[in-house]
Amino acid sequence: MLVLGVESSCDETGIALYDSEMGLLSHALYSQVEVHADYGGVVPELASRDHIRKTLPLILEVLDKAGKTRKDLDAIAYTAGPGLVGALMVGAAIARALAIALNIPSIGVHHMEGHLLAPMLESSPPEFPFIALLVSGGHTQLVRVEGLGQYTLLGESLDDAAGEAFDKAAKMLGLDYPGGPRIAKLAERGSARFSFPRPMTDRPGLDFSFSGLKTFTLNTVMEHKDENGQLSEAVAADIAASFQAAVVDTLMIKCRRALRETGLKRLIIAGGVSANTELRQALEAMVLKEKSNVYYARPEFCTDNGAMIAYAGCQRLLAGQFDEGGLQVRARWPMDELSPVAE
Ligand code: ATP
Ligand code: MG
Ligand code: FE
């Protein structure tokens, strides 16, 4: 089954072609980072307009790269939520219109299920059941995964998401958006000499809180500014390293706790922050001691992309699901409302 995937939930247009027999055939991504750079955040109306401009050209590009035409498509999967409603609408309307024109089924995919399944696109993917750590710009969740669509939320952030914390801390250090990769790069030259807290690790439970780290970062920045209000690059690098170490350590401790409490031996990490090298190394070291395994996607499939949507949609289509009823997208959509897929 050849499935076209369309991702447009935020500020990235991601398109991909996934074949159930051959695997991923082609993919393309367009990031709107520059469109929103002057505004200090994603402007929903500008995001929608840019998706309108990019979606069809990228669909033609992935078909061309794979040596396919639209007549070869068996189905179309698109992100139906959660995300920016206008941005989601663009992808959903294009995907559904194209499916109707080609007389093939379409399916609306949950963006976080897409992220969660992205490690399945790699060689030797994990078997169910496993623990999933979803760490992205909008989510920090620990989920017990029994099978496709069988998700139990074990814990989540009570305030900022991990990626959001990276982005805000980066801003305080004068770094551009997205902050995660920039903090990681700056941290390479620093040492984690400031003792940042490891929020909520000293009490039971699997919830997270990252807003305190933000305040701690701001205070540390303020304390070390010189008389001209400047922060030396060396100190900025040390703050970046200390902040990153605190986030990584906190995530590692909660993942270890989730493995121990459930007795599961497999951990997957997904979402933009799962691209972080320090996080991967810390989790690799932890699972070794716990006699467990950790799985993640290649870095470009950790952040938003069309491949994960094509893959997730394909799994549900293979199980007989497809869109029925009118065009619908959802800004909010708790993942445990998803329907389980029978084996
Ligand atoms: P959501 O998926 O929750 O709707 P999103 O789609 O905006 O949010 P993603 O695209 O999955 O989030 O990830 C983007 C986030 O990942 C940003 O906050 C970014 O700073 C962070 N990020 C990306 N690469 C890294 C990295 N190497 N280290 C840390 N954080 C990173
Ligand atoms: Mg994004
Ligand atoms: Fe995302």
Automatic annotation (TrEMBL):
Which keywords does this chain's UniProt record carry?
Answer: Acyltransferase, Cytoplasm, Iron, Metal-binding, Transferase, tRNA processing
Binding positions for Fe cation per the UniProt entry: H111, H115, D304
A Pfam family hit = TsaD
- Give a GO biological-process term: tRNA threonylcarbamoyladenosine modification
Gcp-like domain location: 24-311
Which family does the UniProt entry place this protein in? Answer: Belongs to the KAE1 / TsaD family.
Q: What does this protein do?
A: Required for the formation of a threonylcarbamoyl group on adenosine at position 37 (t(6)A37) in tRNAs that read codons beginning with adenine. Is involved in the transfer of the threonylcarbamoyl moiety of threonylcarbamoyl-AMP (TC-AMP) to the N6 group of A37, together with TsaE and TsaB. TsaD likely plays a direct catalytic role in this reaction.
Protein name, as recorded: tRNA N6-adenosine threonylcarbamoyltransferase
Q: Which organism is it from?
A: Oleiphilus messinensis
Q: Which gene carries the instructions for this protein?
A: tsaD
